[in-house]
Amino acid sequence: MLRISNILFATLLTALSYGAIAKPVNAISFSSTTGTLNDSPDGTPIKTDFTFIVSGVTNAPSYNYSLNINLSHADLQELEGYLINNASGRTINLFSTLSGANLINTTFTDGQPLLSSSSKLSYTGSFAPENNSFNEFPSVTATNFSDFNSDIQNTTWTLRIYDSANGNVGTLNSATLNITPVPFESDASAIVVSAGTLFALYQWRKKRTLVNSKK
Known about the structure:
CATH topology of the largest domain: Jelly Rolls
Number of strands: 10
Strand content: 25-35%
Order of helices and strands: HEEEEEEEEEEH
Largest sheet: 6 strands, mixed
Helix content: 10-25%
Shape: elongated
Radius of gyration: 26 Å
């Protein structure tokens, strides 16, 4: 009886410890370089790269991503924006030839409406990546941020912005890439279920022992 109790206690302790590990992990934020966008002299798209140096992201089965941008430009129709994982080369189109001016506290993440569905009066808020590249510089290889899950996380990431018209000079005021590791929640549940099963077996064994002792 004592041996079964010890096994039960050890199993429950393991389950509780694993559950603590499986709690949601906070996002890790990385700021990019900033500055003036290169202005196309003749209508030929010209790029400006801004980089995030990502490190310290723990291994996980999947990740959640968001990218917040503050960008000043008089005519967004001249611009295209991309996020690139430099290790894999995987590329997602964030926005392309939008109406209006400026991106103010604009956050790109999965599961949100498209920028093109907004009122055009303001791009403040959370939006899904457009994946509507007109020039396709560079070639797009991702349709959702979740496509980056299989890539190396701790590497340089690039925010690449193309300007395709002369006359308006833009500025990237800030950009923040947030990466949130998502733990193995299902494994923790399995351990808790196993602990519950063991407890039920223990109760059954206890009752059986009591019945046998009365015979």
